[in-house]
C-alpha cells in the first residue's frame, strides 16, 4: 500500500521548488565538500565518495545524484534567514554533511542494513572495518573543517557540533537499548521515550545545521537558539515520517526493502503509538502485541498482517499527527525571531517537502 504523507496545514508543498532549493544549496557546498574529502587518504577518500554517491566501488564515477543534502541546505538557508549570504555557512554545511554521513555509515553497521539509496551500504561494499575507518575519518574531518574557521566563530561552531554529537550518541544508545526492551508491560518503550530518542538521534544534527548557519552568519544568540530548536522539532517530524516509510514505503522511492523495520522488529513510532493506544486501539492493539511478542521469525505474510494491525490500532494516523505537531512547533520557532522573509519561505518549502515525502 502506498500513500502520500499530507503536508501540514498552512504549509504548501511544492516539490519542484524544494528540489530547486536543495540543488542550489548542494551546488554551493559541493566544491568545498569535495575539497575536504580530497584531503583524506585515497582509500578512505574513495569510500567517502562512494557514501556520498559520487562514485562506484573502485572509483568510477557514479550515475546517481546521491542524497538530498537536507542538512547542508538547512545551514545555508539559516545563514540567509539571518541576513547573510549563503557562502557564510559553507564550512558549517560541510561539517554537518560529513558528520551526517559518518553517522549513517556506523548506523548501517549497527542495524545490519545491507542497502542505502538502492546501493550496497559501505560496510557491505568494502567491509565492516573499512566502513568504521572512513566513518572515523569523516568525523575528524568535520571537526577540522570548523576548527579552521577564522576568528571567534570557529570555536563557537565547534562547540555547537560537539554538543550535537553528544546528543546524537545519546539518541543512538537509547535506540539500541530499545531493542532489548519488551513490547508491553512496565518496561515497554513509551512514545515519550521515543520522542526524546528521536530528538537526540535525528533532531540534534538538524538543529546543529540550522544553528551553525545562523552562528556563522553572525546572528544573535536568541536567533541561533530558535533555529536550533526549529531543527530539532524538524528532526522528530523527519524521523516519524521515516518510520512511516519504513513500514509502508515504496522500495523504489526509499531504496529499502518493504516492511524492513517490521522485519527487524524495530520500535518505531507507529508501532509504539498503536501499542500504547490503550482502549482506543481496540482488539487490533492486543493482536499486534501478541504477534510482536511471538518468538517465531516473521515472514512476509506476518509483516503484512502487522502493518495492517498497526493501521487499525491507529498507529499510522497517530504518527502523522505527531509529525504535524512538530512541524507546527517549527513554525512557532521561525515566527519568534526576526528572519529574512525569502529564506524563511524557502525553509517552509523545504519542511513541507520533507514531511510530505511520497511513500
In percent, how helical is the residue content? 55-70%
User: Do you know the CATH architecture?
Assistant: Orthogonal Bundle
Q: What's the CATH class, please?
A: Mainly Alpha
* Domain tally: 1
Structure summary, number of beta strands: 2
Explain the overall architecture.
With 359 residues, the chain is mainly alpha-helical. The protein has one domain: Orthogonal Bundle (Farnesyl Diphosphate Synthase), CATH 1.10.600. Helix content is 69%, strand content 1%. It has a two-stranded antiparallel ribbon. β1 and β2 form a beta hairpin. α4 packs parallel to α7 (153-178), α7 (153-178) runs antiparallel to α8 (191-216) and α15 packs antiparallel against α16. The longest helix has 28 residues, at 221-248. The chain is globular, with a radius of gyration of 20 Å. 49% of the residues are buried.
Gist of the model:
By secondary structure, this protein is mainly alpha-helical. It has helices spanning 15-38, 42-51, 70-81, 90-111, 122-126, 128-147, 153-178, 191-216, 221-248, 251-254, 260-263, 269-275, 282-292, 300-312, 315-335, 341-355; strands spanning 115-116, 119-120.
Amino acid at each position: 500500500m502506498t500513500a502520500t504523507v499530507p503536508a501540514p496545514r498552512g504549509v504548501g508543498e511544492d516539490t519542484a521548488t524544494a528540489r530547486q532549493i536543495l540543488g542550489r544549496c548542494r551546488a554551493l557546498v559541493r566544491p568545498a565538500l569535495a575539497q575536504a574529502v580530497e584531503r583524506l587518504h585515497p582509500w578512505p577518500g574513495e569510500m567517502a565518495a562512494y557514501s556520498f554517491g559520487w562514485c562506484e566501488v573502485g572509483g568510477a564515477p557514479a550515475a546517481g545524484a546521491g542524497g538530498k543534502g537536507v542538512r547542508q541546505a538547512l545551514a545555508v538557508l539559516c545563514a540567509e534567514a539571518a541576513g547573510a549570504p549563503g557562502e557564510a555557512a559553507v564550512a558549517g554545511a560541510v561539517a554537518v554533511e560529513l558528520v551526517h554521513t559518518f553517522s549513517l555509515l556506523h548506523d548501517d553497521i549497527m542495524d545490519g542494513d545491507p542497502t542505502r539509496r538502492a546501493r550496497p551500504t559501505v560496510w557491505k561494499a568494502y567491509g565492516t572495518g573499512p566502513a568504521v575507518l572512513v566513518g572515523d575519518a569523516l568525523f575528524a574531518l568535520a571537526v577540522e573543517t570548523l576548527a579552521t574557521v577564522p576568528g571567534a566563530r570557529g570555536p563557537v561552531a565547534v562547540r555547537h557540533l560537539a554538543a550535537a554529537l553528544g546528543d546524537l550518541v545519546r539518541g543512538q544508545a537509547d535506540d539500541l537499548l530499545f531493542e532489548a526492551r519488551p513490547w508491553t508491560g512496565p518496561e515497554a518503550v513509551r512514545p515519550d521515550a521515543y520522542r526524546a530518542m528521536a530528538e537526540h538521534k535525528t533532531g540534534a544534527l538538524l538543529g546543529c545545521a540550522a544553528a551553525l548557519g545562523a552562528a556563522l552568519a553572525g546572528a544573535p544568540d536568541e536567533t541561533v537558539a530558535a533555529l536550533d530548536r526549529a531543527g530539532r522539532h524538524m528532526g522528530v517530524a523527519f524521523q516519524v515520517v521515516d518510520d512511516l516509510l519504513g513500514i509502508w514505503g515504496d522500495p523504489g522511492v526509499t531504496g529499502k526493502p518493504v516492511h524492513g523495520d517490521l522485519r527487524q522488529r524495530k520500535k518505531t513510532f507507529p508501532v509504539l503509538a498503536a501499542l500504547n493506544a490503550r482502549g482506543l486501539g481496540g482488539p487490533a492493539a492486543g493482536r499486534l502485541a501478541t504477534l510482536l511478542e511471538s518468538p517465531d521469525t516473521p515472514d512476509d505474510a506476518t509483516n503484512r498482517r502487522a502493518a495492517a494491525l498497526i493501521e487499525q490500532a491507529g498507529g499510522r494516523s497517530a504518527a502523522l499527527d505527531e509529525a504535524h505537531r512538530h512541524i507546527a512547533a517549527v513554525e512557532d520557532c521561525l515566527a519568534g525571531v526576526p528572519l529574512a522573509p525569502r529564506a524563511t519561505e524557502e525553509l517552509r518549502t523545504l519542511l513541507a517537502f520533507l514531511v510530505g515525502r511520497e511513500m
